[in-house]
Amino acid sequence: MLLMVSLASCRKEEQHGGDVERLQFSCDTLSFDTVFTQMGTTTRQFKVYNRGSEIVVLDEVTLEGGRASRFRLNVDGDTSLSAQDVRIDPGDSIFVFVRANINPNLATEPFLIEDAILFRKGNNERRIPLTAYGRNAVYHVPTDTIHYADGTYPIDNFGKPYAYSVIDCEHWQHDMPHVIVGYAVVDSRQTLHLREGDELYFCEDAVLWVYDSATLDARGTEGSPVLFTSVRHDGWYGQLPGQWGYIWLSAGSRNNVMMNTVVENAFVGILVDSCVNANPTLNIRNSQVRNHSMAGIIGQTSRIYGSNLLVVNCGQATVAMQYGGNYRFEGCTFADYWRYDARKTPCVVISNSWEVNGVEYVRPMQAQLTDCIIYGNRTDGELGLYLNYNGPASAVFTNCLVRGGEWDEDPKFIDPQGGDFHLMEDSPAWGIGYQYAQSVQEKH
Questions:
Q1: d(Cα 115, Cα 30) in Å, to the nearest integer?
Q2: Integer Cα distance of 212 and 219 in angstroms
Q3: 352-390: buried (b, 16+ CB within 10 Å) or exposed (e) per residue?
Q4: Closest CA to 290 of 183, 437, 416, 424
Q5: Residue 190 to residue 213: CA distance in whole angstroms
Q6: Cα 177 to Cα 104: distance, rounded to the nearest angstrom
Q7: What is the pLDDT of residues 381-406, one digit of tens each?
Q8: Model confidence over 349-381: pLDDT tens digits?
Q9: Closest among 71, 75, 88 to 19, alpha carbons compared
Q10: β-pair type (44-50, 93-100)
Q11: H/E/C letters for each residue in 396-420?
């Protein structure tokens, strides 16, 4: 007993005198990417460290704006507006999680939202500023779901029912960004006209569906392209593939035009189905299609004319011309430096047959590529020709630099892994491929 008393009398009493000034933070300002009104943001986080030798007990961690703040906190699991008596042991840390939710207003341009997180102890206070740009938007939210007569529902490529809304093409607002949820449909005999500066942001698995006899007419400019992209752009999401579905030019859509456009971060950039007349199903020029988890452009028995395109960094192929069709590409760069896993498919794929239940079907194929670069990091070559000559089939390459082809030289992109496909001064590919002019990539 005497020994226990002696030991107890020697034990150092817990010290709570640590000052808030001794705390260290993993950031000095927490900034959010553009926040669409009504949608909220993903959660951002930072850490608060106690590097000292004494316990710090904060009287309060709160938002400077109080209940009126457009931000919300979670302080080490405490979701109240004001966390009290927050303890940080010596050498320990806590997480602070922050979300932004912004109410709509009448602004057509982005507007700045500011607040701060206050860490208080006694008369001392530390402050971490919060900033976010809010944007109002037009929302396309499903109002119906496709179903069969017996009440069952067909399932799409993502294992979900086709929940859709119909776009009012006549009253499309060009002064606001548009947020797509589910399938947004350009209905039969309607044309969606998009012009310079129009922006379409897609939620998870969302699709722009250009239906039978409908048309997409997207015409941006070099300095102000039409943008098709994902809702999320904070941090590493800015270039993350697979965040939304695709632009679907379905069988029967006609005379689709995409000029000076950017299509990025989807499952498939543009899916072009069977053609129904002699005109191109898609005429696409001066555009960039980049960072897609499956493919940039897929043509299925379709007619596509493309010129001055940059189609890059896709999980399987930048361009797949399959099930036959008629394709002509001039002055295009198809470059695949996919870095998320091992890519087994060539950068450009051309095929005219497929098999169903042991039966092979063959369709006529005509593909012409002129002054194009077809390159990437696949050592087995970047051109896949799978032609069945039981039907009319041809693929002609004129003045094309192709990895694994007759002209196989490194085009010497400046930084393909980082997304910069400008050519170095000593590149052998000057005069062919995508011509940057006033680069869409630099303007976005």
A1: 10
A2: 21
A3: bbbeeeeeeebbebbbbbbbbbbbbebeeebbbeebbee
A4: 416
A5: 8
A6: 13
A7: 999 999 998 989 999 999 999 999 99
A8: 999 999 899 899 999 999 999 999 999 999 999
A9: 88
A10: antiparallel
A11: EEECCEECCCCCCCCCCEEECCCCE
Tokens 């060539």, residue located: 346
Closest CA to 435 of 307, 294, 303, 323: 307
Please name the amino acid found at residue 304. Answer: I
CB 278 within 8 A of CB 238: no
Tens-place pLDDT, residues 281-312: 999 999 999 999 999 999 999 999 999 999 99
Cβ atoms 183, 207 nearer than 8 A: yes
Q: Which residues pair with 192 in a beta bridge?
A: 216
Q: Are 46 and 27 in contact (CB under 8 A)?
A: yes
Q: What are phi and psi of 58, to 5 degrees?
A: -80, 135
Reduce the secondary structure of the chain to three states and give it as a string. Answer: CHHHHHHHHHCCCCCCCCCHHHEEECCCCEEEEEEECCCCCCCEEEEEEECCCCCEEEEEEEECCHHHCCEEEEECCECCCEEEEEEECCCCEEEEEEEECCCCCCCCCCEEEEEEEEEEECCEEEEEEEEEEEECCEEECCCEECCCCCCCCCECCCCCECEEEECCHHHCCCCCCEEECCEEEECCCCEEEEECCCEEEECCCCEEEECCCCEEEEECCCCCCEEEEECCCCHHHHHCCCCECEEEECCCCCCEEEECEEEECECEEEEECCCCCCCCCEEEEEEEEEEECCEEEEEEEEEEEEEEEEEEEECCEEEEEEEEEEEEEECCEEEECCCCCCCCCCCEEEECEEEECCEEEECCEEEEEECCEEEECCCCCCEEEECCCCCCEEEEEECCEECCCCCCCCCCEEECCCCEEEECCCCCCCCCCCCCCCCHHHHC
Distance CA 24, CA 74 (A): 18
Round to whole Å and give the CA distance between 64 and 298: 51
As a whole number of angstroms, the distance between CA 402 and CA 369 comes to 11
Against a cut of 0.70, is the pTM above it? yes
